[in-house]
Amino acid sequence: xxxxxxxxxxNGIPKRICxxxxxxxxxxxxxxxxxxxxxSLNDEDHIEPVSDSPLPDTALxxxxxxxxxxxxxxxxxxx
Length: 79
Hints:
The chain is an alpha+beta fold. It has two helices and five strands. The chain has helices spanning about 60-70, 75-79, and strands spanning about 5-10, 15-20, 25-30, 35-40, 45-50. It has a five-stranded antiparallel beta sheet with strand order 1-2-3-4-5, with helices on one face.
């Protein structure tokens, strides 16, 4: 699985998140409301943003981290 799309309700408003695993890297591209943000997993398995662009809603960050950890468990094996 390389692409994933989910809809979460934040403050009663549905937000659609598209998550894409970048091939041969420990990076993920997240698209929320037309804004693309790249995240990477470091050696300690912490999720960090690569770019400085902020999320449209900061309440989405725990949902994004959950999606990465739940659906992409073997990222070290993919490299």
